[in-house]
Amino acid sequence: MTVTVRGARRATGAVARLGPGLVLCVVGLLLSRADVVLVGAALAGGLLVARRDLLDVSLAVGTPTTRDDTGDRRLVAPVTLTSDAPATVLVRIASPGADPVGVLVAVDGDRTLTATLPLARTGRVPGFAAHGIAWSDGLDSVALLEDVAPTDAIVLPVARRLEEVPVPQRLRGLSGPHGSRRPGSGGDLRDVHPFAPGDRMRGIDWRATARRSPELDEIYVRRTHATSEAHVVVVLDSRDDMAQDIAAWTGFGEPRPDRPGSLDLARSAAASLATAYLRRGDRVGLVDLGRSRAQLRPGAGERHLRRILHALALARPDHGSVGRTRVPALQAGATVVLLSTFLDDDAAEAALVWLARGHEVWAVDVLPPVGGVLPDGASGLAWRVMRLERALRLERLAAAGITLVDWSAPARDVPGPTPEQRLRMMSRVRPGGRR
């Protein structure tokens, strides 16, 4: 959708030239001189006809889209200027959190500019606001262009390629990509057993039968392990979106569009994990802790992946919502992947409740590296206390047996494994000997 705003024009030179003709008309009326009125009307009319091409300039900003240039993601929108006469236009383009840019262009007809902005944010991203001023070549006409409000764009998160993701301890279903410990139709050999009611005829192993029972007193069958699938529920904590600049936490600054916030990291982690599990054949669901009814039941396939990505893009803090009053109930046997900043006890308490209910729980820390000018005084003390409480909260989760993954560790230069290395280590031999 394109928003077009017509310019508000003020023809200062034309008004000045029409002044003498109007004065003669008024004087002629006061003196009752028809000849003077005719002369004034002719003068004003001639100038009006001569200046009928008053400056007319329009400004249009197109709907912003995203563009990837060799890994560099940008927000792009066309800016169209239209003028019915040669004019010079000074346009100022701005976006929240970014430095405004001004450009001086000559316009005669239609001219299109392209506004670009380095982008690391996802979800609902504000577009470009534009306004400007135009004047004719003779400097006798000026058009003040009204402001064009920015149009929001929905930016989907980009999934990071994960070479290996861990297999949950508990599997579900009668078929899937993973071998289980129960007998059934599968690929891995379980044992060779005498034929019993319920065994299938095509499972008879004639070589084992001839070797173990030469007189064919018993028939032996090959029994295999059944295959199953994993049910993974991604729990997104969208109650807050913490920027890297701590000044934006208190509302004194706008988050920069070229620096991801905590919710952007959470969307990227959720999209990466969901893509890896769905393309492996597992089932993935989505729960939003910031919404009381935002939940996608575990599903499979590319269409379900698109639903998850769109739901992640629409997730954002809702300060007017009352949130959840209890921990969401999940399907039995599901593995919970909780993505949060863990700046309060709500997400940590929910993880402990799920662990007590028998779920396997992974906690993914998505707090970005905090920079900028750290506050002094009471604000600085509050930040240090919050940081210590958060560290104790994460230690409590680890002591309870919850696996921790620091998704923003590389950006903070924290010593230790990267998220990919951490997931690869989790993918090694699991309890019970299953890979």
Jot down its keywords.
single chain, 435 residues, alpha+beta, Immunoglobulin-like, Rossmann fold, eight-stranded antiparallel sheet, 9 helices, elongated, disordered N terminus
Verbal overview:
With 435 residues, the chain is of the alpha+beta class. The chain folds into three domains: 3-8 and 54-155, Immunoglobulin-like (Sandwich); 178-228, no CATH class; 231-426, Rossmann fold. The chain has nine helices and 19 strands. It has helices spanning 12-31, 34-50, 206-212, 262-280, 302-314, 345-356, 377-399, 409-412, 419-426, and strands at residues 3-6, 8-10, 57-61, 65-69, 72-94, 101-118, 123-125, 129-136, 142-148, 153-155, 178-183, 189-194, 220-228, 231-236, 283-288, 295-299, 335-340, 360-365, 403-406. The strands form four sheets. Strands 1, 2, 3, 4, 5, 6, 8 and 9 form an eight-stranded antiparallel β-sheet that branches. Strands 16-15-14-17-18-19 form a six-stranded mixed β-sheet, sandwiched between helices. It starts with a strand and ends in a 9-residue tail after the last helix. Mean pLDDT is 78; it is low at 1-14 and 431-435.
Count the E strands: 19
Low-confidence parts lasting 5 or more residues at pLDDT below 50? 1-14, 431-435
Hey, roughly how much beta strand do the residues contain? 25-35%
Q: Helical region count?
A: 9
**What is the SS-derived class?**
alpha+beta
CATH architecture of the largest domain: 3-Layer(aba) Sandwich
How many structural domains does the protein architecture include?
3
What's the Cα radius of gyration? 34 Å
Shape: elongated
- The first-to-last residue Cα distance is 51 Å
CATH topology of the largest domain: Rossmann fold
Largest sheet geometry: 8 strands, antiparallel
Helix content percent band? 25-40%
Average pLDDT works out at 78
CATH top-level class of the largest domain = Alpha Beta
